[in-house]
Design a protein that fits this description.
Methane Monooxygenase Hydroxylase, Chain G, domain 1; disordered N terminus; 384 residues; Archaeosine Trna-guanine Transglycosylase, Chain: A, domain 4; alpha+beta; 5-stranded mixed barrel
C-alpha cells in the first residue's frame, strides 16, 4: 500500500470569485462542511480527478449524484450544491480502489461545467453565509441546540467535546453543518439541508429533522423497554415453573405438572372463545397450585376433564323423522304416553321451523322413572 500526504494550499480565482475544481460525483453520500471523512473511489473519471487535484493544490469539489446506478453522470444527474474539500491522504486499496481522506470546507454551487473528459471540471461559487441574525433566528438557533442535546442524549457514545463545541458556536450555518453530519438521515434529506441558502429556512429544516429523529428514538426506546419487560416476565415465569417442578418432583407430585401441561395442550387445540378459554385456563392453573392428594384437586380435575371432553365447535346433521322417533320411543318405553307425546310435538315443531331458539325440554321426576332413558331415545331418534 502506498500512502501520500498533502497540505492544504490556496486555489481560488480572486478576479472572478470562482473556484475551478475537478469534480467527483458521490454515490449515496452527502458531505457537510466541518467534517473529516474518507470514501472509496473506483471510477476512472474520479481517479483522474484525484490525480489532477494532487498536481494542482489537492482541492476537489464533491457533489452527490441523484441516482446510485448511474455510472457516468451527466449534469442533470447531479445535485446543484456540493462542497469543496482538501485531499489530506490517499491510500491504494486492493481491487484497484483508492481510499481518499478529505477535509470538507465550505458549500459550493456549480455555475458551469468546463469539461467532461478525462474528468469533470467545474466552476463553482461559494454559498453565501448570513452572519447577522434577527431575534427570531437567534431563538431558532437556541432551539436547534437544545434539540440536538436531546438527540445526542439517546446515543450510547456521547461526545462531551462535541457538545461543548456546539455550545460555543453562534454562526448558524456552521452549527447546521456539524449537526447535519451527525444526524442519521437519508441522502435526500441531507441534500435539502445542504442546498438551502436561507439561514432561517435552514434552521427550521434542521429543527424539524431533529424533532422527527427524537420522536423515532423515543418510540424505539419504548418498544425496547416493552420487549425487555416481556422477556423479563417470561424468564421469571420460566424460573418459577422450574422451581415448582423441582419441588413437586421432590414431593413425588411431578405427575400433576405433566397433567397440567397436557390439559393446557388440549385446551389450546379446542380453539375456544376467549372468555371460555380464560375460564378453563384459570381452573387448570388452580389445579396446578392445589395439592394433588386433596379432595379439591379431585373435584377440579373432574370438572376440567368434563369440559375438555365436550364436543366443542362440532356439529352433526339432524335427521328428524317423526314416525321413526315414535317407534323408538315406544320400543324403549312402556306407557309414559304424555311424555312421549310432548317429545313428538317438540320434534314436529322443530322439523317445521328448522330453527328453535326458545323452549327447552326439561324432564322432571324422582330417580328411576326414565328421564335418562328418554333422553337417550331422543338422541337415537335424531341420530345423534
Amino acid at each position: 500500500m502506498n500512502i501520500k500526504d498533502y497540505n492544504e494550499k490556496e486555489y481560488i480565482s480572486e478576479e472572478e470569485k470562482l473556484w475551478e475544481l475537478p469534480l467527483i460525483p458521490l454515490r449515496g453520500l452527502s458531505l457537510f462542511p466541518e467534517t473529516v471523512i474518507h470514501f472509496d473511489v473506483g471510477r476512472e473519471k474520479s481517479k483522474a480527478a484525484i490525480d489532477y487535484a494532487m498536481e494542482h493544490k489537492q482541492q476537489i469539489m464533491l457533489i452527490t449524484q441523484r441516482e446510485l446506478m448511474v455510472e457516468d453522470p451527466e449534469p442533470e444527474d447531479l445535485y446543484e450544491v456540493g462542497t469543496r474539500a482538501i485531499v489530506k491522504q490517499i491510500l491504494k486499496m486492493p481491487g484497484d480502489i483508492i481510499r481518499v481522506l478529505v477535509e470538507v470546507k465550505e458549500r459550493l454551487t456549480i455555475s458551469s461545467f468546463m469539461q467532461f473528459e478525462p474528468f469533470i471540471m467545474v466552476e463553482a461559487n461559494e454559498v453565501h453565509n448570513q452572519m447577522i441574525l434577527t431575534k427570531e433566528e437567534k431563538a431558532l438557533l437556541k432551539m436547534v441546540k437544545e434539540a440536538f442535546y436531546t438527540y445526542m442524549g439517546y446515543g450510547k457514545n456521547q461526545s462531551t467535546e462535541m457538545l461543548d463545541a456546539i455550545e460555543e458556536i453562534e454562526e448558524p450555518n456552521k452549527l447546521i453543518d456539524i449537526i447535519g453530519s451527525n444526524l442519521m438521515i437519508d441522502v435526500e434529506q441531507a441534500q435539502v439541508l445542504l442546498s438551502e441558502t436561507d439561514v432561517r429556512k435552514r434552521l427550521e429544516d434542521t429543527y424539524t429533522l431533529l424533532v422527527d429523529e427524537i420522536e423515532i428514538l423515543e418510540m424505539e426506546k419504548d418498544i425496547d423497554s416493552k420487549v425487555k419487560s416481556q422477556l423479563d416476565k417470561h424468564q421469571k415465569e420460566y424460573y418459577l415453573r422450574e422451581q415448582i417442578k423441582a419441588i413437586q418432583e421432590e414431593l413425588g407430585e411431578d405427575q400433576t405438572l405433566d397433567q397440567v401441561d397436557d390439559y393446557l395442550t388440549r385446551l389450546k387445540a379446542l380453539n375456544l372463545e376467549e372468555s371460555t378459554h380464560k375460564k378453563v385456563e384459570k381452573e387448570i392453573q388452580k389445579l396446578n397450585k392445589t395439592p394433588s392428594g386433596s379432595s379439591e384437586a379431585s373435584v377440579i380435575q373432574t370438572y376440567i376433564e368434563w369440559i375438555l371432553d365436550l364436543p366443542w365447535n362440532k356439529e352433526t346433521d339432524e335427521t328428524i323423522d317423526i314416525k321413526n322417533a315414535r317407534e323408538i320411543l315406544d320400543a324403549d318405553h312402556y306407557a309414559l304416553d304424555k311424555v312421549k307425546e310432548r317429545v313428538l310435538e317438540y320434534l314436529a315443531v322443530l322439523k317445521l321451523s328448522q330453527k328453535m331458539t326458545g323452549p327447552i325440554l326439561c324432564l322432571v321426576g324422582p330417580p328411576g322413572v326414565g328421564k335418562t332413558s328418554i333422553a337417550k331415545s331422543i338422541a337415537r331418534a335424531l341420530d345423534r
